[in-house]
Structures
1.
Amino acid sequence: MNWNSIFIKKNKLTHRVQENAGMAFDTEKEILYEMNGIASEIFNQIDGKKTVGEIVDYFLSKYIGDKESITKDIYIQLHDFLKFWMIQFKDDFFQ
């Protein structure tokens, strides 16, 4: 994963946001993933077009914090999404 990486959500995933939290349901595996508000907001930014850098810039413009900390938090969350097969690299999808 790098600054120019682009991700897409898995096809069998539906996402809902409620009161500063979110849930994603994998309809294929029948697994419910619960997310806090920030994780849900990061997940919402994944659209198959935005790079990791653009997602970081979005959060830097919206929240107070230093670039290093915000970048680290986003990388950790994206890694978790990858680990649970909620997202994949866009390039992997088209190969």
2.
Amino acid sequence: MTYIAFYKFLFIIELAVAEFLFTFRLKKRSLYPLRLSAGVLVLLAFAAIPVPTDTFYFTCAAFLLLFGLSLPVMLFCYDESFLNILFCAMAAYTTQHFAYELTNLVVSLVERGTSPLLGMYSTAVIDLGAMSKTTVFSIVLYLVCYVASYWLAFGIFGKRIRGGAFLLLTRPSSACYNHDSSRR
């Protein structure tokens, strides 16, 4: 398996976890566990489709397409408006990307060089036999950075999201607000 093929699978898992953090309190459709499982499997199947990744444009398009495909999956799982789903999806993608960039920064600083995560976009084949202590340490840093980022994002934003409310940004200090439309 190539690094880019592996990273597309990893991206789907990272995005699905982040999306769950922002949506698990939303109103769920019937058979939710089955819908969620099927949706993630569909996204993983799309991630398995090989795409040319020799240019920045193809790589960006591939990841934006994977993100775009997660929106119908979320609509399939949750009984919410498209705008609420889009709001949660954008929050999730922002959280995933922040965690990725934080991990790159931390690993680059600790290892005093280029982060190995930047190599995830290459078409080189993964050699599991070449795994070193540095690689294992980078994986641990990756996990710590992702857990910390997701926990922080959930603590600041995710806890405020409730199902059935219209989600909107009111002012920067409020982060997100559940507007109860029944009070109008």
3.
Amino acid sequence: MKISKKFFSLMAIILIVMMIPNTLNAKSKNKNKTAENIPAASTVPKIKIESDKPKNWCPELKIGLYTLNSPFNLSTNLDFSIIDSTKNKTLKNYKKNTELIFSAQNNFVKIDGENFSSNEIELRPQNEKELRNMLINIGGQEYFGGLKLIAVKNNLIVINIVPVEEYLRGVLPKEMSPSWNEEALKAQAVAARTFSLKNRNRHKNEGYDLCASVHCQMYDGADSLDEKTDEAISKTFGEVLFFNGKLIEAPFHRDSGGITENAVDVWGTDFPYLRAVTEIETKTMAWEKYFSFEEFTKILNESGHKIGDVKFIKVTNLELGKVTNDRSSSGRVKELTIVGSSDEIKLSGSELRKIFGLKSTLFDVSISGNHLKFIGYGWGHGVGMSQHGAQTLAENKYSYEKILAHYYKGTEIKRLY
């Protein structure tokens, strides 16, 4: 029986058609296998919406601004009430733009010379929902929110009652340059918000939550607002960092010098999410500081450490990321020995930095003629997020979530409100 060439051609076509699905499946399997090697999205903290609060609601903070011993002028853009904080009683209502003079005398607050028989008063909008839109002008400087005044003898402690999101608008431009990458600004917003809420009541004994200086966070009210930082705050509204179901400590600093530090090596307390991590750039923000032996001895004596004339300092040479008996795993100085003519002492790197005003503990020390020479890198304690490091990561296409995941290990982002 003869089989025609046409039959063989037809069978060949059928076989080819039958093989196409298998070929496609094989390619599909290979493609899926490659995708498994790409870092999964779960390496970034996962945002969980847990808020049951009304839209745009946020908690209040009490920010200690300063203490005044002389009268000051105040006005607002909204109708407001004066409330006795100790009794939660409204004392008097005022129209917007009314200018008042506040002072203190014998532990009582005085307004326009009138004694209100209270040592604690609050100034709030008559419509409490308008707190976020209220602007208070104190001697030409503006602040969002309300005000609390505490009379202590003839002094007034001036406290800004401000919603968290408006507080951040006065913090971010002071903590990070508004010209920086948006992802770095958003990372800073989340870190600053987390720090604020975690550290409420830090100044409880003084009558407020946080101060307005570097001890807490730099805060300048409504005088330093910027569109870019406002946008970063808005895009991360209510977002904070959690670890094992709790708000984290979210420290940050200006520059790590190329590697951050373990919290335990700075503060003696171990936080599993505050571990030393390396940066894209190393030995950043280099600095130098010189002291004559005479000057160094004088400063050391004034700090209460009297060991005679300082002769030299014993500490191993700096190698980034190398731990020694006197350096941490990042290379920062944990402890050094200062040898004097009559005695010697051991000081922690943090204590030496504080006494001599050094920018960081990531340094080497040597003798140069009649001087002690400190050569170091970075600026700040080195724990948590490096602000300059965050900017570098953002410039290298890291999202703010990945930046935060880099510096705060194992944390996740949650939206509180």
4.
Amino acid sequence: MGKRILIVGYFGFDNVGDETILQVECERLRQLRSDLELSVLMDNQARARELALTSYKRKSIYQIYQAIKAADLVLEGGGGLFQDSTGPGSVMYYGSILAAATMLQKPSFLLSHGFGPIRTDLGKLLAKSLLPLASKATFRDAESLEEFKKFAPQVEAQVTADPVFLLKPGDSQKSQDVLSKCCLADASAPVVVISVRSWLGLSIEKQAKAYNDWWESLEVGNRPQFVIVPLQYWYDEGISKRLGSLLKAPSVVAPKLSGEEILALVAAPQVEMTVAMRLHALILTACAGKAMLGVAYDPKVANTCELCGAPYLHLKELDEENFAQKLTDAWEHRNDLALQIRRQVEMLRAKADTAFTMAMEML
């Protein structure tokens, strides 16, 4: 019988970033050791079957106990699991998994986390009590490691990279198939991919005006069309359609796409650049070696852009004139940006793989 790994994260909720993380984790772990038996805490049974995972209900104390008891390693991550922006529930839940693993004498490993922010008094108390129980930890950026060390300085930890950096584009036919699903007005015209999400203080009207001002400043024959891609479809679809309705350029809202399909889309020759708020829209673009501009509503977006050598602007800087200038600069230098991003991604892929090597050493 092979070794057993229990994977724990924000899985089964139809978020492209998290679902792509889970897919990459399963693929890479099985590549490194073919006899592994993988399980997951997830209520989405169809998704678990798709990835050939044994699933346990994530809110059943009994099933969580059974899952941890059966495992040789509890692997938490990736993604931003330890944060209390929406309340202390996440810190309590994922920290409790570490506590249960400790009680059952099972090693636990935090894989390529994006850590924080933890701002509430209760969140900080839980973090200080529970995070030191992790056996080892890796983080997707230096800022996350620094924040983690404030709560668990004794845990062996290092910086790696987001697991999704391990993905590589498929063949060109898949790119064309995804483009066809998007029903573009002109299949040969250049494309800019956009990823947007709702956020407190975000004015979609200001974003639309900046896109329009930039687009109208271009020569007619050099104007791109837009494909707006919702990454958490049920959450992003409405604001994506609102943005599309305000744009003067030809634009479409993409249908629901998987992480691999989004990678195929941004890898298509017609796609020149991505402008994104969603973290994994940027990471998938980087994997395709294309130019990108980040809109940093959260430090993780700025951190990832810096790692990739890509430009970004903070949400608080997002007035029409500033955003339009950033779009102009990124568009004019898109070929140089793409080259720089490709160089950085090769290093990030190696760092991402380090986390999986460490996980294997714990079995």
